[in-house]
């Protein structure tokens, strides 16, 4: 019987920094001027070389693999951002990379995968979600790098918590976009070890918020997944191991509407000149709702890989 997945230790997160910074940059933490009671700060992971935090977890997980194990290449399942993280690190090491993507994957992310030398294989959304559970897909070879359900990936993501604490020691809460849970749990593990009084919240979007629904019913449940321009987070369910970890490490889930996410994207462009994809802006939308309460709140802007056409639609005041 496979042992339950454990959260990374603070020692593993600290050690991950050596591998993470061979690929990722230390992103800035900037103030967002707002009219509310909270003091909002933005952790701009959208400024990473691939436009997403995923480069951190990929760098740590692949960096811990034996060179001999990489001869057959690496592969992953991703809507686009983890694909870029794995492809970026595979190109750096000179090994092939393949990615299973959903048929709804945005063109901007598909173009980025190709630009980094990765091979994208499309499948149905249902089949794609199944890969996260089985970790298998016909025709895929090499080492599989799980986008979120991997202790080494979470340790790489947890380096974000260390940076936030160094830059804003008196932070009171952190809001993190929640997809599979690997980003939120990695950051949550870092804060639980270093600053347990800091509340770490998940941000989810209506129509694709299985963590919030599971918390509401106090049991892991599935929801009817509705695809939207917020393609980097959400799903029909939370994997069992991630459900367990998320309950241990997160203070709750804040659910926002697509309209609120679009408004957050417009606000970020207008006030900070930052472009966030839907997932990345969900944390900002959640914080702007006032649900977190007063204090110094950090919103993790997880990515900025938004199709230009969709961005134009949002900036014009409409939903893609």
Please render the helix and strand layout as text.
Layout: H1 10-20, E1 29-32, E2 38-44, H2 54-63, E3 74-77, H3 81-93, E4 97-102, H4 107-115, E5 119-123, H5 125-134, E6 143-144, H6 151-167, E7 173-177, H7 182-194, E8 199-205, H8 210-217, H9 240-249, E9 252-256, H10 258-272, H11 278-288, E10 295-301, H12 308-315
Parallel strand pairs: 2-10, 3-4, 3-6, 4-5, 7-8, 7-10, 8-9
Antiparallel strand pairs: 1-2
Report what the structure shows.
The chain is of the alpha/beta class and 320 residues long. The protein folds into two domains: 10-52 and 150-315, 3-Layer(aba) Sandwich (Rossmann fold), CATH 3.40.50; 55-144, Rossmann fold (3-Layer(aba) Sandwich), CATH 3.40.50.1100. The protein contains twelve helices and ten strands. It has helices at residues 10-20, 54-63, 81-93, 107-115, 125-134, 151-167, 182-194, 210-217, 240-249, 258-272, 278-288, 308-315; strands at 29-32, 38-44, 74-77, 97-102, 119-123, 143-144, 173-177, 199-205, 252-256, 295-301. The chain has a six-stranded mixed β-sheet, with helices on both faces. Strands 5-4-3-6 form a four-stranded parallel β-sheet. α3 links the parallel β3 (74-77) and β4. α1 (10-20) packs across α2 (54-63), α2 (54-63) crosses α6 (151-167) and α6 packs across α7. The longest helix is centred in the middle third of the chain and has 17 residues, at 151-167. The protein is globular, with a radius of gyration of 18 Å. The mean pLDDT is 95.
């Amino acid at each position: 019987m496979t042992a339950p997945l454990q959260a990374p230790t603070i020692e593993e997160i600290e050690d991950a920094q050596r591998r993470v910074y061979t690929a990722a940059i230390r992103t800035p933490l900037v103030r967002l001027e707002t009219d509310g009671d909270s003091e909002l700060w933005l952790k701009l992971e959208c400024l990473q070389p691939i436009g997403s935090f995923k480069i951190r977890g990929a760098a740590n997980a692949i960096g811990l693999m034996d060179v001999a194990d990489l001869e057959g290449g690496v592969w992953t399942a991703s809507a686009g951002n983890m694909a870029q993280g794995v492809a970026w690190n595979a190109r750096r090491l000179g090994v092939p990379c393949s990615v299973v993507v959903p048929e709804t994957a945005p063109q901007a992310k598909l173009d980025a995968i190709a630009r980094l030398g990765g091979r994208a294989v499309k499948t149905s959304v249902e089949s794609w979600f199944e890969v996260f559970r089985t970790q298998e897909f016909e025709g895929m070879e090499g080492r599989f790098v799980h986008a979120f359900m991997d202790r080494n990936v979470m340790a790489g993501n947890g380096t974000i918590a260390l940076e936030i604490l160094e830059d804003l020691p008196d932070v009171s809460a952190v809001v993190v976009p929640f997809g599979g849970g690997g980003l939120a749990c990695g950051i949550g593990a870092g804060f639980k070890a270093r600053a347990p009084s800091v509340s770490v919240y998940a941000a989810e979007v209506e129509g694709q918020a299985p963590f919030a629904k599971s918390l509401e019913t106090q049991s892991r449940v599935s929801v009817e997944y509705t695809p939207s321009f917020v393609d980097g987070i959400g799903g029909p369910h939370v994997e069992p191991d991630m459900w367990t970890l998320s309950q241990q490490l997160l203070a709750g889930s804040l659910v926002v509407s697509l309209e609120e996410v679009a408004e957050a994207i417009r606000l970020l462009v207008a006030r900070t000149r930052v472009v966030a994809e839907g997932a990345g802006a969900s944390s900002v939308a959640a914080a702007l709702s006032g649900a977190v309460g007063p204090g110094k709140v950090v919103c993790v802007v997880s990515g900025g890989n938004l199709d230009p056409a969709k961005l134009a639609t949002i900036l014009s005041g409409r939903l893609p």
